[in-house]
Amino acid sequence: MAAYWNHNSAYHPWITNIAAAHRNEDLLDVGCGDGLLLQRLAPIMHTAIGIEVDETAATRARGRLSELVNVSVVSEDFMCYRSERQFGLITFVASVHHLPLSAALTRAADMLAPGGDLAVVGVAANRSAIDWVHAGVRVPVVRTSSWLHRESYPENVPVADPMESLAQIRAVARKLLPGARIRRGLYYRYLLRWTKPSRGA
After folding, report:
1. Partners of 193 in the beta sheet?
2. Whole-prediction pTM value?
3. Residue 36: which residues within 8 A CB-CB, separation 6 or more?
């Protein structure tokens, strides 16, 4: 299966840079879709597990990843997933808005190993004037980039409209993930990174 570029995969290099600090640790990718990010991170990680509730997408991911011995895909809702291990890196790419935000972030934080990173490429709702201004000024650059990169999305991928604004997401993160860094990305996405404190910190 070929690679592709879209407003989600555009941030794979950002995640890859974070993953480099967790080389040979375990990865959990929540809402892994067709497995493109897992394919890119597998050479860095000790093991890589994808969680994908949509069976069609999970089947595609297994096909893409069939030759990678350290990768597996689980067809399950993240909120029901159980694991004995803790992960050095947990990622959400355009998937956390499909889940109850506070519960999903709390669960991810619990599953991270001390010193591990949570990396979220998220979608927020435009609720304020400043949200719409930020979205509007990006349009020319975004459209040009989409044309240059031949933007493409896998077919029949489940979609959902985001419920929370960026201000609401910041407030939740401030409460649940002290020290989390959140910034607006170019392609109508926000980027959240949180490092779980080491034991004794």
Report:
1. 119, 181
2. 0.96
3. 3, 4, 9, 12, 64
